Amino acid sequence: MFKIVSAAIAVSLTGLPALANAPDYSPQDGEVLAFDVYRGDTEFGTHEIAFQREGDELLVDVDIALRAGFGPVTVFRYEHESSERWRSGTLVAFSSQTLKDGETYTVQADLENDALVVQGETEEGGDVTNSFAPSILPSSHWHGYPDGLERILNTEFGTPMEVTVEYLGEERIAADGTTIMAHHYRLEGTLTVDLWYDANGRWAGCAFEARGQSIRYERRSAA
């Protein structure tokens, strides 16, 4: 029913492309970014990202759960779980499992000989293998996307996604139970997604249109 771009680094973010108009974001051990997701004005589900450090690496776990229905009857369900492992600003391993439109897709990626080798599936269900430069960014959004970016890793299927990134300036959005000033970016790929990042470079909001429906993310307060 809805097509979702799914939706994380080492002790230093050196080597990871930074947002052009917002500061580098360095997640803390144990930090969680949590969003309430709305379809129009109706609660649609949640999207959470948890960060954990292991030595010089950072592990990022993404958990998305979306549901639409009438009372107890579910008419649409989307679930996505993924894990990213970053070392010195490089994505060295990735795995995901996605339940979408009643089908399950899995992706597994590892860094091999200076290339990220990704075993995934097409949306039609066929197996596919792709190799990416170690600098590839996954479509998990928390890290932001630099100006001039042309391709990212689709985390649902493990396939390349051609994109353009545009910075649209600063504006006030709802987040953390109040309103905040945030940097607004537009990512155009298989879906056009508006993304906002706060003054610290943390992902703060998201909005897109899917099959005539307006989807909106609102970040919960960490307190």
From TrEMBL:
Keywords: Signal. It comes from the Bacteria. Pfam families: DUF6134. The keyword Signal applies. Residues 1-20 form the signal peptide. InterPro entries: DUF6134 (IPR045767). This is DUF3108 domain-containing protein. It comes from Marinicauda pacifica. The lineage of its organism: Bacteria, Pseudomonadati, Pseudomonadota, Alphaproteobacteria, Maricaulales.
